[in-house]
Design a protein that fits this description.
heterodimer, A: mainly alpha, two-stranded antiparallel ribbon, 2 strands, about 80% helix, B: about 375 residues, mainly alpha, 2 domains
């Protein structure tokens, strides 16, 4: 049990190297990637019942030297759930976008793509599990490079442009994070989170080095905000997420931005302590940016005529929900935010996979106006899109509804603005999602139905859409169980 | 570079042209490439072949360092663009010659008067905002640095039990005379494993971006392709690199192997090895270096190095975390076979670093549209 996180990281690492060497056999590389992801999801899943029974956390020394000297991993219920969810989402995103991978990437380069996916997975795992802030930085670097890599795989002009934009913003954010680590190290003398947190508690109690601490907290918020597309720093997201191949879009929006949010939560709660962050006023800023993002993301999405860009802007709004939940600053708010994050991690890949399917049967046009009747040509994509849209809008029985209810309940203590913004944003979501959902099911007038039902989706695709949809509805109906686990998980954060 | 435009039509564009055409910050009607003074060859002392377009293209890139669309253009790329956009002529310039990186011709660069670029209000405000936020960030950082504890002072918070143990017990803990090697490859070896994987990730990404699936071996070589394959035409350079190349490699190997005993180690030694290979490639060309190292070989060596690193470290981490003692002896401090796993780990890191450097250089210079 103790070794599972380390073994899953190493497994992904070995897999990524083997995938690179499998240049001549892209199919083997892809199959191996899937097997490794399933293995990671299963192993992480095994930890959940263990932690539910025994509670607490495990600190895992990486090597022969204990805490202040060597590296450490630390994990409990929350980390186990997140690792399991992330690996599952990446796996489902791969099988949901297989057609896209085959079409968009030269077969000689598909092994590189598998390698990058596994590198991304291992960096996310390390971000979830790490107990050392410098280890977090190292794996942020891997994450940044690998995610830029999976954006540009399509090798068209627009993806290269989106990649450059993403790379520049992301690297600036990495730089800010590194500077913050340097500041924190020079005033605390530690890099491991528990020791650093202790030192920060002493410093804030005695009132020394407040300015560097504050600068570091602000810069970390900005840097992880840029990387996770918090509202005013979201400008890279629509380009990167909408131009990439389907699997990349799903993974980027489903898990990559979430990895950074989790790191930010860890830093707020475990490094600085939430009271210190509250004292600096940062929680209010995060809350306000979250609220503005909720509204503005939806407004941007309404203006979009391009389906994938619309879904990408919707991510900006959904990330706003998560940040607003974090900004509430209570355990309830945090667990609601994490719950929404997991819902979004299952919904957005569903929407992107469905959009990929719809685009394929609409003459490869991403424009919404060309999609009339597309769902009739690829029924799985149509069903998936409707379920995803209902979840994002917040129709009861779907995941998004449950998470919004929990967010609203947690927001009662904070301010009425949160509830109003939630209501407004949900209405805006409906304005852009529902017309598309209706349009794709509307028959084309000039075409007979018989001619339209040509394309049959591959079995993999159906499995992916089916799993995503089923999980979505399951979380919508039985979400309280997950929220219960998350509430337990965050309390021992 | 051939790019698929949105309607799926295959269009051939240079990267610079393409960025210009697509960058939202630049109005499309302004062509930076042609933006120079249209006086022609007279203005371009070095361009005695009279390729106005070509000359302007280069100047467009050079003079617009401040223009963000060009900010990412490294020198090597710059030339590739010039070549790309004007593939029909200008081969005499031998623009792919690796020694171009020194840019000897640039000294004669004449001052070219530029037209004022018209900016809309929004673009102006973006620039003003960017400058202001940059200055603000710099000021905040300066003030912050001023409040930090003095560097090297004895009562700074960073002087604590952590650094004390690294320095005082490092030798007995890790067996490495070089404390830095002990920290990065034993105390905090997981971070270093991550760093090696960063290099690996970078290589995979660049291979992904630049590797051509099939080298057109059967096709006739164009003139500059021959140039890049045979290196520079300067005899002294070839003689000098012929003499120094073995010593550079030897020194790199020494720094890697001696990493646990003296300053140096895998990262610095690997950089020396990689630098030596790059020099050799620059001077003697790919024809020469591909006899002993290719990008494919590089990835294989990297993979082998990382496998060994992962294997050794997995052993040490699993034993350490589960409370078992490591069976690897630390040896006598100071002798070459000492410090447990640090020597093999240094070799792995050195191989990974050297191969990353060489593979990146090779991929960037041998890239053809």
């Amino acid at each position: 049990m103790n070794n599972i996180p380390f073994i899953s990281i190493i497994l992904a690492m070995i897999g990524s190297i083997v995938a690179l060497l499998l240049g001549k056999k892209p199919k083997t590389a892809l199959a191996m990637t899937q097997i490794i992801l399933v293995a990671i999801a299963a192993m992480s899943g095994m930890m959940i019942p263990y932690f539910l029974q025994n509670g607490g956390t495990i600190t895992y020394t990486l090597g022969h030297f204990p805490a202040p000297w060597g590296n450490e991993l630390r994990f409990g219920l929350l980390e186990a759930i997140l690792a399991c969810v992330f690996a599952a989402v990446v796996f489902l995103a791969i099988i949901g976008g297989k057609n896209g991978i085959k079409e968009d990437i030269q077969s000689a380069k598909q092994n590189c793509y598998c390698s990058l996916l596994l590198l991304l997975m291992l960096s996310l795992l390390a971000l979830i599990y790490t107990n050392d802030i410098f280890t977090a930085y190292v794996f942020i670097e891997i994450n940044t490079i690998a995610s830029c890599g999976i954006v540009m795989v399509k090798e068209s002009g627009e993806t290269l442009k989106a990649t450059i934009k993403y790379l520049f913003m992301s690297l600036m954010a990495s730089g800010l994070f590194l500077i913050s680590i340097a500041l924190l190290y020079s005033v605390t003398g530690h890099l491991l989170i528990p020791q650093m947190s202790e030192a920060i508690a002493h410093l804030t109690a005695s009132g020394t080095y407040i300015w560097p601490l504050m600068a570091a907290a602000i810069m970390i918020t900005v840097s992880l905000g840029v990387k996770s597309a918090m509202f005013p720093f979201h400008t890279w997201l629509p380009d990167a997420h909408s131009t990439a191949t389907t699997t990349s879009s799903s993974i980027l929006s489903g898990v990559v931005v979430k990895g950074y949010i989790i790191l930010l939560i860890k830093i707020y709660y475990r490094v600085f302590g939430i009271e210190t962050i509250r004292g600096m006023g940062l929680l209010h800023v995060v809350f306000a940016l979250g609220i503005i993002g909720m509204i503005m993301g939806s407004i941007f999405a309404i203006r979009e005529k391009n389906l994938k860009r619309m879904i990408a802007y919707s991510s900006v709004a959904q990330i706003g929900y998560i940040y607003a939940g974090i900004g509430v600053g209570t355990w309830a708010g945090l667990s609601a935010a994490l719950f929404h994050m997991i819902i979004h991690a299952f919904t957005k890949p569903l929407l992107f996979s469905s959009a990929g399917g719809l685009i394929e049967v609409s003459g490869h046009s991403k424009m919404i106006e060309d999609m009339q009747g597309a769902a009739r040509r690829n029924r799985w994509a149509g069903i998936g899109f409707v379920i995803g849209a209902c979840s994002m809008v917040g129709v009861p029985l779907f995941g998004g509804f449950t998470s919004k209810v929990y967010l609203a309940m947690s927001g009662q203590d904070k301010s009425i603005i949160f509830i109003l913004a939630l209501a407004l944003s949900s209405c805006l979501n409906a304005i852009y999602y529902l017309p598309v959902a209706l349009k794709i099911w509307t028959k084309r007038t000039e075409e007979s139905t018989a001619a339209a039902e040509g394309d049959v989706a591959p079995a993999d695709y159906a499995v992916s859409i089916g799993c995503f949809s089923a999980i979505n509805i399951a979380l919508g109906v039985g979400g309280f169980l997950l929220v219960y686990m998350l509430t337990q998980g965050v309390q021992i954060l | 570079m051939s790019l698929l435009s949105e309607d799926g039509k295959k269009t051939v564009l240079s990267f610079g042209d393409w960025v210009n055409a697509n960058s939202p910050e630049i109005p499309p009607e302004i062509d930076y490439a042609k933006g120079g003074d249209p006086k022609g060859p007279g203005a371009h002392g070095h361009d005695d072949h009279g390729h106005e377009d070509h000359g302007h293209e280069d100047h467009g890139h050079d003079d617009h360092g401040h223009e963000e669309a060009h900010g990412h253009d490294g020198h090597g790329h710059d030339d590739a663009h010039g070549h790309d956009a004007h593939g029909e002529h200008g081969h005499e310039h031998a623009h792919f010659e690796p020694h171009e990186i020194v840019m000897p011709k640039r000294e004669k660069k004449p001052k070219v008067k530029r037209e004022k670029v018209q900016l809309t209000g929004v673009e102006h405000s973006y620039r003003v905002f960017a400058v202001i936020s940059g200055i603000l960030l710099a000021l905040v950082l300066l003030v912050t640095v001023a409040t930090l504890p003095r560097f090297g002072s004895a009562d700074a918070p960073a002087v604590n039990e952590v650094s004390r143990r690294y320095l005082e017990q490092g030798l007995t803990d890790t067996g490495a005379v070089n404390a830095v090697a002990g920290i990065i490859l034993d105390y905090r070896a997981f971070d270093t494993l991550g760093e090696s994987v960063v290099l690996f990730t970078a290589t995979v990404t660049v291979i992904f971006l630049l590797q051509q699936s099939k080298r057109k071996n059967g096709e006739e070589k164009t003139e500059d392709e021959v140039d890049v394959n045979t290196g520079v035409r300067s005899l002294p350079a070839k003689v000098i690199i012929g003499i120094t190349f073995p010593f550079i490699l030897l020194y790199g190997i020494y720094v890697v192997l001696n990493g646990h005993l003296s300053p140096g180690g895998g990262f610095s030694g690997g950089t020396i090895l990689g630098g030596g290979l790059i020099l050799c490639h620059m001077v003697n060309g790919e024809r020469f270096t591909e006899r002993f190292i290719t990008v494919k070989r590089c990835t294989q060596i990297m993979a082998a190095g990382l496998f060994v690193y992962i294997g050794l470290k997995t052993y040490s981490i699993l034993t350490g975390a589960n409370g078992a003692a490591s069976a690897i002896p630390l040896g006598t401090p100071g002798s070459i076979f000492s410090a447990g796993l640090i020597l093999p780990l240094n070799i792995c890191v050195g191989l990974v670093v050297a191969c990353t450097m060489y593979a990146l250089y090779n991929l960037f210079t041998s890239w053809r549209s």
